[in-house]
Amino acid sequence: MSLARRKMVSHGMQALCGLAVLIALLPLASLLWLVISRGAAGLSLAFFTELPKPVGEPGGGVGNAIVGSLSIVGLAALMGIPLGVGAGVFLAENGEGRFAAAVRFTAEVLSGVPSIVVGIVAYGILVIPMRRFSALAGAVALAVLMIPSLARGTEELVRLVPRTLREASLALGVPEWKTALRVIVRTALPGIVTAALLAVARAFGETAPLLFTALNNQYWSQRPDQPTASLTVQIFNDAVSPYDELHARAWSAALVLLLMVGLLSLAARLFARSRTRGQR
Amino acid sequence: MIADPVVQTAQPAPRELSHAPGRRSSDRLWSATLTTLGGAVLVVAGVILFSLGHVSAPLWRTVHVFDFLFGSVWDPEREKFGALTYIYGTVVTSTVALLLAAPVSIGIALFLTEMAPSQLRPLVSFPLELLAGIPSVVYGLWGLFVLVPLLRERIEPLLGRALGFLPFFQGPPIGLGFLAAGMLLAIMILPTMTSISIEVLKTVPGAQREAALALGATPWEAIRMAVLPYARAGILGAVILGLGRALGETMAVTMVIGNTPRISASLFAPGYSLPSVIANEFAEASGAMHTGALAALGLVLFGVTLIFNSLARLLVRAAERGPGRRR
Q1: I need a surface site. Which of A134, A139, A257, B213 has the fewest CB within 10 A?
Q2: Model pTM score
Q3: Does B208 lie at the interface with A, CB-CB under 8 angstroms?
Q4: Calpha distance A116→B281 (Å, rounded)
Q5: Measured distance CA(B194)–CA(B213) in Å, rounded
């Protein structure tokens, strides 16, 4: 092959790689534009505060779904974050030996489990014994999804803390547990907060594990042992319904969902930025 | 478990210290607490297996595994449960997703690591992070109201005219179907595959490509002959990880695949997938047998994704250590 030809092939392939970037950006641009343009039309104060109205009646909102999502994810965070972060600290601090290796491998493998499967698990351990769908079952499903990735993330962050910090603390006679909590974990804390916020953001967008755990509810849910509406399940039900009004509501709810997930991710990024450079 | 050498140097307290005879009781308590927290991960895994087994038990008592996996009739009222149509739909949509997403994401990864000036990188990596953070139900919404009409009115008629001699592109353009689900999945797994490919490509030593360039290779030849062979295992791992995600993705697929339990060669035809049937039927299942059958589908899905994910992790880890140091 002549040099000119080889150069041409090279330029051609480089152009193709650049084209790949454009191909990937196209759906993103379309999606964001449509969610914003179609979603914004239906937003009003009532959208955030009122119950959904039946088809044919104007007005109404998804207030119960927003509150439902917040309470399910909040409950999930209460269970998932301590366990996930704790397991991560364990892996970083006592990370040698067979037991730790088994924990690490399990966490790694579990982080790929499809979320719908986790929904079945929560159904089996909570919905069947309680004989009812509940926010609690949904929260357990989301917590199970949070734990593995949070454990791996925390482990990596805690390991970044320089060994000299630990040695200095131990040399001063500080007990091991205090060193771990007040020196090591504290140094890694901004990173851990970032990881936790991202895990919460991800949980917020989950639909599949809630379909048959928290189910749905047309009304406000008072207690965590009752079926509870969520923003994501509401979007799904509205989108697959045959009514244009409900489709419009789905777009507006999607905009609210994206805004909430986006805010959580933004908060996570800001925390990440507050992390000191010296740790790396 | 093979730890990274860097990680090993960052190991916590020296062993002698933590096991010294005069260890405080508070430290023993701390260590026990940590071990319990770590054990929680194993407990979670145990609960997952137990619950799946428990819920699906009524099915296994009456239906043989073989009949379940290869039967194509799914009729809850007559208690006939065959998973084949769903397995077929999952395999077809994931394959389409892989074929579409793999070249694009490898292209992006190469562009960002090998070609683009470094100032351009955040401009591309930020949108990719955005793509990864969008909830799947929003993808489904977009797919249902944007991608499906586009396929029905433009892309499928075009494909039918151009490639209609192939069985994959025959039949009426409905929009909802395997192709819609595959394309949507491709968009969704793109960020995963791209970001891991980038990580893998970053581990390729600079000397590798410089040597190729010094021998007179064009930039593309350096990539093809020096960079890609070095990163092959890792990129394969990234692709398989994307596949694992595609297999288990529920909402987006459910919203655009058409939910019709049928095995068709044509990608234009509507179908059904494993996660979709679980999503649609579980809450209103007609009894313990039906619920059991759906949980059994979940168990199949769990097993398959477990295998693919473990394989992918091993490949990526081996690649990050580099071929030169592989045992």
Answers
A1: B213
A2: 0.91
A3: no
A4: 12
A5: 25
Is residue B40 in some structural domain? no
Query: B74: helix, coil or strand?
Result: strand
Query: pLDDT digits over B167-223, tens only?
Result: 999 989 999 999 999 999 999 999 999 999 999 999 999 998 899 999 999 999 999
**Any domain includes B35:** no
E-only strand ranges, chain B:
74-75, 80-81
Strand, coil or helix: B81: strand
Domain count, chain B: 1
pLDDT of A71: 96
Q: How many CB atoms sit inside 10 A of residue B107's CB?
A: 23
Is residue B150 domain-resident? yes
Average pLDDT over residues B7-13: 48
Contact (CB, 8 A) for A140 and A76: yes
C-alpha B127/C-alpha A94 separation (Å) is 37
Residues of B in contact with A115 (CB under 8 A): 248, 250
Domain containing B173: what range? Answer: 59-321
- Distance between CA atoms of residues B258 and B176, nearest Å: 5
Contact B184, B252 (CB under 8 A): yes
Task: Report the residue of chain A nearest B42, measured CA to CA.
Answer: A103
Query: Residues near A40 by Cβ (< 8 Å), separated by ≥ 6?
Result: A252, A255
Q: What is the ipTM of this complex?
A: 0.93
Q: What are the angstrom distances between the C-alpha of A4 and each of A9, A238, B218, B225, B249?
A: 9, 58, 10, 19, 46
User: Which residues on chain B are in Cβ contact (under 8 Å) with A170?
Assistant: 13, 17
Question: Is the CB of A34 less than 8 angstroms away from the CB of B146?
Answer: yes
B49: Cβ–Cβ under 8 A, 6 or more apart, which residues? none
Q: How do residues B75-112 score in pLDDT, each as one tens digit?
A: 999 989 999 999 999 999 999 999 999 999 999 999 99
B231 is a domain residue: yes
Residues in Cβ contact with B117 at an 8 Å cutoff, skipping those fewer than 6 apart: none
- How many residues are given for chain A? 280
Cβ atoms within 10 Å, residue B8:
11
Cβ(B270)–Cβ(B177) under 8 Å? yes
Looking at residue B229, which CATH number applies to its domain?
A: 1.10.3720.10
**Cβ–Cβ under 8 Å, residues A221 and A138:** no
Report percent pLDDT > 90 for chain A.
83
Residue of A110, A120, A236 with shortest CB distance to B137: A236
- The rounded distance, in Å, linking the Cα atoms of A14 and B69 is 45
